[in-house]
Design a protein that fits this description.
Helices cover about 25% and strands about 20% of the residues. The C terminus is likely disordered. Helix 3 crosses helix 4. Strands 1, 9, 10, 11, 12, 13, 14, 15, 16, 17, 19, 20 and 21 form a 13-stranded mixed sheet that branches. It has a 5-stranded parallel sheet with strand order 3-2-4-5-6. It is globular, with a radius of gyration of 23 Å. Among the domains are: about 190 residues, Rossmann fold, CATH 3.40.50; about 80 residues, GMP Synthetase, Chain A, domain 3 (2-Layer Sandwich). By secondary structure, the chain is α/β, with parallel strands linked by helices. The longest helix is centred in the first third of the chain and has 17 residues. This is Acyl-CoA synthetase. Pfam families: AMP-binding (PF00501). InterPro entries: AMP-binding_CS, AMP-dep_synth/lig_dom, ANL_N_sf, ATP-dep_AMP-bd_enzyme.
Length: about 550
């Protein structure tokens, strides 16, 4: 991909905030939480202060023996300092491996073993409540961002160490390890280089350059996700105030947006779904938003329509990018208010010219169409170079340079890519579970989540979550399913009990297993959760 390669010097995470501070010294990062590693900075540190913090903690890590090419796992309580620590680790040539705070302790231990005796940055809470005792045997050293614990070193105790200069690494050197969503099992460790990150940064930065610098940028993205490490550089290198959100609670977010109205918002689809409530907030927290942006998973037409109507800006846009942790953004499209809530949500747009390529490969030798979708494969220099310790799994997804996404779809005669389903989520006789879900969302505004999963008798089962966990309106449901394929009676769950990944994707296979096993997914105190609603959903 030619335009991703020209002059590609790598993302240089270790000096990211130095370069941002040199351009905009007083640039602000506005947060909804305190940093565990530096609560004294408050919630509105400058780029300059964060550059110094990263330099400081890189030096602290150096003082305990972290060196170039060493791996440092970060698994701590949620917070923006996860991303800042990744920059500090990269600053001295080491390789940060970020593991979601949502991962259970056994999964963390499994991934740590794959890396082979890395340093571990965590905290007292994780050691006491989540991580197994063996973590000390499978790591080189355990470092704490907060609290204390026997055998662990508190990073706070290393304050005042001699500063060390940044160590530049070549663009093809691993610069970050993230993990896949784990929707189908144990997550894989995705290895990114400075070169691959810069390549996936470029298509987004090119588009984003049109956003005026006066526009604050709000980001609610998992701090361990690769998307954070393109969204963050795009914002601060162009001098935007960066609003970093740990929580997605509409009330808290509304307070912050009322104080610092964003002009651009990047968030997970399920976050935007929850923020539909902000459209009714009398303070108008979304009124100043000119651009909404989302990737990671399917976005529903209803959500797009509600958010765009909440903006008071002329010609407000909602941009959806199609991509994957392993490859970055591949295709994109935009929506306007004129589209309403009835547009085709399965259309995920077109590739970035000169940067990404898409093809759809037939599964049976017959032409690929909407009724006979094929395997979606892509090309991009933003693709990861391997799965750490599982290179053979990486190789299985590559075919002559084309990466198989694990999705099914087709392309129109105009070249627009349509995504119908994940391969593992396909249900025989159902053209697209995602399309059915889009229609149900549009027809039933009380829904905040609906997931179509396979049923034991072959009839798909809709799992539904409603706003404020109110009982599903059965009369409205019967009207909503008219014209849809035959569905089983809906099963109602609380959203908080539905298994999700770090980026709020629904773990559909796990959910299907739980529903088939009769689980309500909630345990004690959730009598109304996981109940089958008696209704004729045919």
């Amino acid at each position: 991909m030619l335009l991703q390669r020209i002059g590609n010097k790598g993302i240089r995470l270790g000096t990211l905030f130095d370069r941002a501070a040199a351009r905009t010294p007083a640039g602000l990062v506005v947060m909804d939480h305190d940093l565990d590693i530096a609560p004294q900075l408050g919630r509105r540190p400058t780029f300059t202060e964060l550059a110094d913090l990263i330099d400081d903690f890189a030096s602290r890590l150096w003082s305990v023996g972290v060196r170039p090419n060493h791996h440092v796992v970060v698994h701590k309580s949620d917070g923006f300092d996860i991303s800042l620590l990744a920059c500090a680790i990269a600053r001295i040539g080491a390789i940060p491996a970020l593991l979601s705070p949502k991962l259970d302790g056994e999964t963390v231990a499994t991934l740590v073993r794959r890396i082979d005796q890395p340093f571990l940055i965590t905290d007292q809470e994780k050691l006491e409540d989540n991580l197994p005792a063996e973590i000390f045997d499978i790591t080189a050293a355990v470092l704490l961002t907060k609290g204390s614990y026997d055998q662990a070193t508190e990073l706070a105790s290393l304050a005042g160490v001699t500063r060390v200069p940044a160590i530049p690494m070549p663009p093809d050197h691993p610069t970050l390890i993230t993990h896949t969503s784990g929707t189908t099992g144990t997550p894989k460790l995705a290895v990114h280089t400075g070169h691959t990150f810069e390549a996936r940064y470029r298509p987004q930065a090119t588009v984003f350059s049109a956003v005026p610098k006066r526009e604050p940028v709000a980001v609610h993205v998992s701090f361990v996700h690769s998307r954070m490490f393109t969204a963050m550089p795009i914002s601060i290198l162009q001098g935007h105030t960066l609003i970093v959100l740990k929580e997605d609670d509409p009330e808290t977010v509304g307070d912050i947006f009322a104080q610092v109205p964003p002009g651009f918002i990047e968030a997970h689809p399920n976050t935007f779904l929850r923020w539909e409530a902000l459209a009714e907030d009398p303070r108008g927290p979304l009124a100043n938003v000119k651009y909404f942006s989302s990737t990671f998973d399917a976005i529903h037409p209803r959500t797009v329509s509600i958010l765009l109507k909440a903006s008071k800006r002329k010609n407000a846009l909602f941009a959806q990018a199609y991509g994957q942790s392993e490859v970055g953004p591949i295709a994109a499209r935009t929506y306007t208010r004129k589209g309403g809530a009835d547009f085709d949500g399965r259309c995920v747009g077109s590739p970035f010219p000169g940067m990404t390529g898409v093809r759809v490969v037939s599964r049976d030798g017959n032409p690929v169409t909407k009724t006979n979708p094929g395997f979606i494969e892509i090309k991009s220099d933003g693709r990861i170079i391997t799965y750490h310790s599982e290179h053979e799994r990486w190789e299985k997804q590559v075919n002559d340079g084309w990466w198989r996404m694990g999705d099914l779809g087709y392309r129109t005669k105009w070249g627009c890519l349509h995504l119908l389903d994940r391969e593992v989520d396909e249900i025989p006789g159902i053209g697209s579970t995602l399309e059915i879900e889009d229609k149900l969302f549009t027809r039933l505004h009380e829904l905040i989540e609906v997931i179509i999963i396979p049923g034991a008798d072959g009839v798909p089962v809709p799992v539904v979550c409603t706003r404020d966990d109110k009982p599903l309106d059965l009369i409205a449901w019967k009207s909503a399913v008219i014209g849809l394929p035959k569905l089983a009676a809906p099963v109602q769950w609380r959203l908080q009990d539905v298994p999700q990944t770090a980026t709020t994707k629904i773990k559909r296979l796990e959910l299907a297993r739980l529903v088939a096993g009769g689980s309500d997914g909630a345990g004690e105190g959730a009598a109304e959760t996981g109940t089958e609603v008696e209704a004729d959903a045919a």
